[in-house]
Design brief:
By secondary structure, the chain is mainly beta. The strands form 7 sheets. A 5-stranded antiparallel sheet has the order 1-2-29-28-27. It has a 4-stranded antiparallel sheet with strand order 3-4-5-6, with no helix packed on it. A hairpin with a 2-residue loop joins strand 25 and strand 26. The radius of gyration is 18 Å and the shape is globular.
Length: about 325
């Protein structure tokens, strides 16, 4: 999964015009019990999503000059400058500040709750950027696909971990995309075209592990509190897990579901979005449960879980949604 415009296995097409947002609250009836959705303007395209420790929820918008935040039940937009293109990288630090990728301007930026924007230049003429994660120590890691690097941003300084050697046939096409950081500081990343899961130890040592299914279309990655590494296999329509040196793979019940994003809840369940399946999925004890979204035309994209185990998601159709923890933990 390379981004909004290059989803080879998902095939999502998105519009580029964006207008100011207005929030409306909708409760799904019947089978949608437990869902709460916030309507944006129909031209808004929410992409990434990340809850904050203060209870607010940040989100990025395609083709917009603003970043969004849901707080106190209201949608707000904070001006950030140039319009976004494929704003896939988003994470919130312990201070409630949102970090996000800005590929068109070759930089990583940070938005504070008061609207202050701080940016860090990548010093490259072009940039292709994947996911972004904030480590427990507050450092920022992101996939810098254009330089075949998993890049570390600390106190304004960049350290690039070039990973092309793990795709010896085509080193410049290893395509790092997903990034996650474990509690002990170990960084995990996905190398899409190499079909490998990458581990960067706290000391910088790099090791790559071949995913069992060939040409799996490895995408997003997340790490649980127990250290287990979860990842998407988009082309194979599977959810993967790596722990104790051993891989496990779980087939998604809905065929060609269009897997996009992944998150691990505090309770250890892994959650993912099905763009084509109009569903959220959950993996618990090796079993997958799917949750149909309130609307038939739903196109869930980003996903995140807050400290209370509530599941948050973006919908490319112009919605932010939440599945409450009680429903999420059921069945």
């Amino acid at each position: 999964m390379m981004g909004l415009r290059t989803l080879r296995w998902v095939g999502a097409a998105v519009a580029v015009s964006v207008a100011l947002a207005a929030a409306g609250l909708v409760w799904g009836p019947g089978s949608a019990r437990g869902f709460q959705e916030f309507r944006l303007e129909t031209s808004d395209i929410p992409v990434g999503i990340a809850p904050s420790p203060d209870g607010s929820v940040w989100f990025t918008l395609e083709a917009s000059d603003a970043i969004g935040i849901l707080r106190d039940g209201r949608i707000q937009k904070l001006a950030k400058g140039p319009e976004s293109v494929e704003p896939l990288g988003l994470a919130v630090d312990a201070g409630g500040r949102a970090w996000y990728t800005e590929a068109p301007r070759q930089r990583i930026s940070r938005a504070s709750p008061d609207g202050t924007i701080t940016s860090f230049a990548l010093s490259t003429p072009v940039a292709r950027l994947g996911r972004l994660a904030v480590a427990p120590d507050g450092d920022v890691w992101f996939a810098e696909t254009s330089l075949v690097s998993v890049t570390h941003l600390k106190e304004g300084r960049l350290t690039r971990h070039v990973v092309g050697s793990f795709a010896p046939a085509t080193p410049m096409d290893a395509a790092p995309f997903g990034v996650a950081v474990a509690r002990d500081g170990t960084v995990w990343a996905t190398l899409q075209n190499a079909n490998k899961l990458l581990r960067i130890a706290p000391g910088g040592e790099k090791t790559a592990f071949e995913v069992p299914t060939r040409n799996s279309g490895i995408g997003d990655v997340a790490v649980g509190a127990d250290g287990a590494v979860w990842f998407l296999e988009i082309a194979a329509n599977k959810i993967g897990r790596f722990a104790g040196g051993r891989f496990e793979e779980y087939a998604v019940p809905t065929a060609s579901a269009g897997l996009v994003a992944l998150a691990v809840a505090p309770d250890g369940d892994a959650w993912f979005t099905e763009l084509r399946g109009h569903r959220l999925g959950r993996v618990r004890s090796g079993a997958i449960t799917e949750f149909v979204l309130p609307r038939d035309d739903a196109r869930p994209f980003g996903i995140a879980v807050d400290a209370g185990n509530n599941i948050w998601y973006t919908d490319l159709s112009g919605w932010l949604g939440r599945l409450d923890a009680g429903r999420a933990r059921a069945r």
